[in-house]
Design brief:
This protein is an alpha+beta fold and about 425 residues long. Helix content is about 60%, strand content about 10%. It has 3 domains: about 110 residues, no CATH class; about 160 residues, Orthogonal Bundle (Triger factor/SurA peptide-binding fold), CATH 1.10.4030.10; about 100 residues, Chitinase A, domain 3 (Roll), CATH 3.10.50. It is elongated, with a radius of gyration of 27 Å. The N and C termini lie far apart (about 75 Å).
């Protein structure tokens, strides 16, 4: 028992020494960096947006009528759901959350907290092997990192979504007018067309119908708000096509290109990103020792401080004994394991990530270049097929789409001028 207690105490001392504040901070960044889209889904699922929470707190107040558009109501509940839906593609939320998260990580309390967690884990598991204690500590560190993420994302999301109220309201007013005009002209998009459009959006994000609906719900909105948005967009397309199609010589493909982009606005995925990468590995010896682990982390951090860019990486590695350089070339983002993939997608070209621990030892990843979206896949930049494989819309098609948008805005402006819009 004495020998076991001595080993446990030695493990505590050596492990605490191996994880300095900077290393702790790097670890939290590594192990808690979840794809921002996933981070929003997981965190927002447990915390609905501020306006949506009013439904629980205020009951019927969430269904209060805010505006009447030709006697057709828009409720505060509908506005809150649209705000949440618009937040899906709002990159500002991710940017603000990242800044807030990094600010939290820079606090000295992060290192102190994790040291306390380590001590409590060791004290509560005396007699267990080093591997068992490390596994328990890893779980506690991940939980701590997720809690920091919640604080950062909730703060960022609340601040950004509150600024979308007016935009959400204006969008809903426009949709009411568009649907009213579509009904007058008997050109309302069918439920089957809307269902196919939603399925298309889901497939772009590798989600089936139920998964996509759950995703929309998890961010504080609902699939009904998404259906309404898509139905209004498609129905409005039919209105403009009937009135201006011959005048502009628009084909169905020309119009679909524009409306596809409008109805799917805000739903993005980095699945098609391509990353040009370098990797540096500091190999561990045969027997794992905490002192060796600490030494390799310190070497990796020191090298990272001296890194100036991808061109200089090979020569820099030669100055460090035991370091191995690999030029990995260009690889699909999906081939890189998490959390490294997320950190690479969030990094700037030329940036070296904080040191991470892998089965082979301590690794440093370098992002040299990044291509996202259709450009990475080698396809066209528009939402619809181009005139030839691998190319975007022609100059003529772009001009037609521009004219279509101008006619659409002009028509909508006329409808707003003639409408009776009552704010309450």
């Amino acid at each position: 028992m004495k020998a076991s207690a001595h080993n446990t105490q030695s493990f505590a001392v050596s492990t605490a020494a191996a994880i300095q504040p900077d290393s702790l901070r790097s670890w939290v960044i590594r192990s808690s960096a979840v794809a921002l889209a996933l981070m929003l889904v997981l965190i927002i699922a447990s915390s609905a947006p501020a306006l949506a929470q009013k439904k629980k707190a205020g009951g019927s107040r969430s269904q209060a009528i805010v505006v009447l558009v030709n006697d057709e109501p828009i409720t505060s509940y509908a506005i809150s759901k649209r705000q949440a839906l618009m937040g899906l593609g709002n990159r500002k939320i991710g940017e603000v959350a990242k800044t807030k998260f990094q600010s939290l990580l820079k606090r000295k309390s992060v290192g102190d907290d994790l040291k306390k967690i380590l001590k409590r884990t060791i004290d509560a598991n005396k007699g267990k092997s080093r591997e068992q204690i490390i596994a328990l500590f890893e779980k506690k560190k991940k939980a701590y990192a997720v809690n920091l993420q919640k604080r950062a994302v909730n703060s960022a999301r609340n601040s950004v979504l509150s600024g979308l109220y007016k935009q959400a309201l204006e969008e809903l007013i426009n949709e009411r007018l568009q649907m009213q005009e579509a009904r007058r002209n008997n050109v309302v998009a069918s439920d089957d067309e809307v269902k196919k459009a939603i399925a298309k959006l889901g497939s772009r994000n590798k989600l089936d119908e139920k998964q996509f609906a759950a995703y929309i719900k998890s961010v504080g909105s609902d699939i009904h708000s998404m259906r309404d948005r898509i139905k209004a967009t498609m129905s409005w397309r039919n209105v403009v096509r009937r009135q201006f199609g011959r005048q502009l010589h628009l084909s169905s493909r020309d119009i679909d290109r524009w409306t596809d982009g409008q109805s799917g606005a805000g739903i993005e995925t980095p699945a098609n990103a391509s990353l040009k990468l370098q990797r540096i590995t500091f190999a561990l010896g045969g027997a794992f020792k905490e002192a060796d682990f600490a030494r390799l982390l310190q070497q990796a951090d020191a090298l990272r401080q001296r890194h100036t860019g991808c061109n200089a990486t090979p020569s820099l590695v030669k100055t460090v004994s035991g370091a191995r350089f690999e030029d990995l070339g260009t690889r699909p983002a999906g081939s890189i394991a998490e959390p490294t993939r997320t950190m690479l997608l969030s990094a700037n070209p030329g940036e070296m990530l904080p040191a991470s621990v892998a089965a082979s030892g301590v690794e440093l990843w370098v992002l040299c270049d990044k291509t996202t979206g259709a450009a990475a896949a080698g396809g066209n930049a528009g939402p619809g097929p181009g005139p030839s494989a691998g190319s975007g819309p022609s100059a003529s098609a772009k001009a037609k789409q521009k004219d279509f948008q101008l006619m659409s805005k002009r028509k909508l402006k006329d409808l707003r001028q003639d409408a009776h819009i009552e704010y309450r």
